[in-house]
Amino acid sequence: MNVIVVDLVLFGFLVLTAVAIMKLTNLFAVTMLAGLFSLLAAALFVTLDAVDVAFTEAAVGAGISTVLMLSALALTAREERPMSRSVILPLVCCLVTGAALMYGTLDMPAFGSPDSPVHTHVGGAYIERTQADTGVPNMVTAVLASYRGYDTLGETTVIFVAAISVLLLIGFPRKGSRRRKKDEDA
Amino acid sequence: MHHHLILRVIAKLLLPFILLYALYVQWHGDYGPGGGFQAGVIFAVGFILYALVYGVEALARVVPSKALVAGMAFGVLLYAGTGVVTLFTGLDFLDYSRLAHDPVHGQEWGILFVELGVGIAVACAMTAIFVAFVTREPDIDDEDW
Questions:
Q1: CB of B101 within 8 A of CB of A139?
Q2: d(Cα A39, Cα A46) in Å, to the nearest integer?
Q3: Hey, how many other C-beta atoms are within 10 angstroms of the C-beta on A5?
Q4: Radius of gyration over alpha carbons of chain B, in Å?
Q5: Residue B77: CB partners within 8 Å, gap ≥ 6?
Q6: Cβ within 8 Å, pair B129-A166
Q7: B132–A170: do the CB atoms touch at under 8 Å?
């Protein structure tokens, strides 16, 4: 019962935040609300007992990406341009896609069902073997770093490539160039 | 930014705890939630907070941008290098079982090293992206937001 109340409150705030993000045109406020959205999502992951995912969502979604969005915002305009085109076609697209996705969930196994494919294939094997194989109490870490080490290497490379791309596109300024620009302004 | 006295004091007070917490998440990832990725992000947050409050030049004096680029490459190399070392123990790439005297210990060592690689790579990459963005333009006034 309590879990349902918590879920409803969190989902309610999630929807409110999403509507507010749509309605606002001040991009600073939108960025802050997007961070709030991530924080609420992280709280929802906690109610699902997915603490590792919640941790990542809180640190990356609510923390780092908000700061990165703000620093990107500093290079561009503060206000969203008013929309001139009609909203009917995008609205219909969203509603149809949303309805299709909801229809799709009807075929999915019930929440927490032991018969769902997640629990009938490798999941059980990981639970049985992790302790004997690796001696690591946190199974998520064992799966990430050992059983699925290739994937995590790929993810780390993705982050590396992302940072390299940003540096190639906008780059570090040459030494002292920023200070000189400031002096010119003054 | 010299007028933000409270922010400057509180930030300096929080910094050691943020960095310590990042280290806790890094080395305690085997036992609790977290691991290299989260630890790297929290570590980067510590540096970013410092740059936000004291200015990006102050951060550049602590960590030069060259060190950030070298750090993120080193993190990926540490991860991949662990895999290469396991090749020399006669096992598959990233199979840590022979890194120590018994397979369970080997796995623990392997996980420790690759998580450290992830942590270093993520911390340096995030800080580098932030520094690249904020050094594009001179500081903007508080009122401009």
A1: no
A2: 11
A3: 9
A4: 19
A5: B117
A6: yes
A7: yes
For B109-140, how does the pLDDT look when each residue is reduced to its tens digit (9 = 90+)? 888 999 999 999 999 999 999 999 888 776 66
Query: Which chain B residue shows the shortest CA-CA distance from A141?
Result: B30
State the nearest Cα–Cα gap between A25 and chain B, in angstroms.
13
Do residues B44 and B121 lie in contact, with contact meaning Cβ atoms separated by under 8 Å? no
Would an 8 Å CB–CB cutoff place A60 in contact with chain B? Answer: yes
- Estimate to the nearest angstrom the gap between the alpha carbon of B104 and the chain centroid: 27
- Residue A135 CB contacts under 8 Å (≥ 6 apart), including other chains: B104, B105, B107, B108
Compute CA distances A70 → A47, A73, B136, B139, whole Å. Answer: 29, 5, 13, 13
Residue B22: enclosing H or E segment and its boundaries? helix B5-27
Residue with tokens 């070392």: B85
Contact B107 A146 (CB under 8 A): yes
Please, which residues have CB within 8 angstroms of residue A31's CB and are 6 or more apart in sequence?
Answer: A66, A69, A70, A73
Q: Which amino acid is at B4?
A: H
Q: Does B121 touch chain A (CB under 8 A)?
A: yes
pLDDT tens-digit readout, A20-68: 998 898 999 999 999 999 999 999 999 988 888 999 899 888 888 998 8
Task: Please enumerate in sequence order all residues whose Cβ is within 8 A of that of B108, keeping only pairs 6 or more positions apart, or say none.
Answer: A134, A135, A136, B30, B100
- For residue A79, the cross-strand partners are A26
Q: What is the DSSP string of A32-90?
A: HHHHHHHHHHHHHHHHTT-HHHHHHIIIIIIIIHHHHHHHHHTTS-SBPPPP-S-SHHH
The whole-model pTM stands at 0.84
